[in-house]
Amino acid sequence: MDDLGDELYEALRSRTTVEPLISRFPDLTIEDAYHISRRILSRREADGESLVGKKIGVTSPAVQNMLGVHQPDFGYLTDAMIFEREMPVSELLIQPRAEGEIAFTLATDLVGPGVTPEDVLAATETVHACFEVVDSRIRDWKIGIIDTISDNASSGLFILGPGVSPVGVDFEGCQMVVHKNGSFLSEGQGSAALGSPLKAVAWLANTLGGFGVSLKAGEIILSGSLVPLEPVIAGDHMRVSITGIGETEVFFT
What is the b/e burial string over 12-46, where b = at least 16 CB atoms within 10 angstroms of the residue's CB? Predict the structure, then answer.
């Protein structure tokens, strides 16, 4: 599997795409795909990047229907993916799409299996309004679950708004509103992420537990989009606000 991880890593660095993996290797399993994803992370770490968190992908019906992938997945976040206010998508990404979500910063570890949404709330230090800009090294976003898992859950870049305490936040009912270039674009509720972002993070902790991996204190956890993905280009500006949590904005360059 290392050779496929190396292929996707080289595509990441050269900003090129490859043909879908599953069409070339139909016997690939989800376990194989996570091995490929881990290989990409090891190559990035060898370049000097540091692991800062994990992300959940394909959680909401809007995103599942858009991509034709009907189960969640996870990927790894490094310090090279974090930006503030300005994000150079034209320099770093291939076919970027922005999504609004809720990010968690953990105060204590979460080790699955058996993690509950209540455990997630107790382990959370702060929550943030977040834009993740996903990308795909697979040609024309022609992905299935094997392809997106292998490609680090189609991870790209992200930006966080100010952190607030999770205490009292209505994670299921909170309303997200996204504007693009000054105009309303989309809206969604916290319940779009597997019923609640807390449930999504619990799913992640329990799924990772099956691979012997935990969510660590201090890590950033992206809990999945609450709205459809939106293609972006240099010159676009987006803003997201979430009731009870706050807002953030990003200028794409």
Answer: beeeebbebbbeeeeebeeebbbbbbbbbbebbee
